[in-house]
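Minutes, methods subgroup
Present: GH (chair), OT, SY

1. OT presented the first of two proteins processed in the latest run. Sequence and structure tokens recorded below as shown on screen.
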Amino acid sequence: MDGTSSTSAAWSSKDGLVALEWEQVIVDAADPVALGRWWATALEWVVVNDDPEEFEIRPAPDRLPGLLFARVPEPKSLKNRLHLDFRPDDRDAAVARLLDLGAIRADVGQGEQTWVVLRDPEGNEFCVLSSRQRAAAVAEVDEPDA
């Protein structure tokens, strides 16, 4: 590993070069297979491990990081302390597609924003951001040239 990937880091230690690579994000799930398949469809990712206890998807079989859905006995009870943000080319089209797949809108106290908060079928919050072009246009309006 050369440390140049955005999902890896390397540094020197007394024993030589130490490397860390971001392997995956773990998502607790009541039904790892169902939730993992939902996210695989939503993200158009591939299944790399279909174990019913630890179901993993990735952007491609050899690309990291992945999402690993692990079975837990307790239901989700509070707002997630960590969530995923996605930036599509067209926020509204992406939100409509995700809603059609079974996501639901969520109010976590965000008010009116340029992003939309949704929940997956097990209630995990995630955000769909505005496109980079729209975000840049909004920033230009907010900060006009002097």
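2. SY then presented the second protein from the same run.
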Amino acid sequence: MSPKSSKVPSEDLTYEIAFQELKEIALDIENDSVTVDVLAEKVKRASELIQFCQIKLRSTEAEISSIIKQMETKSTN
């Protein structure tokens, strides 16, 4: 990783932190500020962050669906 890396320990990672880091990686790559030597590391980290965000979104969606179902069940009783 480059010295500028903001890699957060996984237990402290939130969706917002992961998304912000993804935006920073994308900007670095778009601005050609990433050397060839670091590019693979950045892409690997981006892949990890994308996977984390997808899992977090799916989990949140399932939780919200469950809450809505509970609310609908209570309102029909």
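Chair's summary of item 2: Helices lie at 15-30, 36-76.
Next meeting: continue with the remaining queue.
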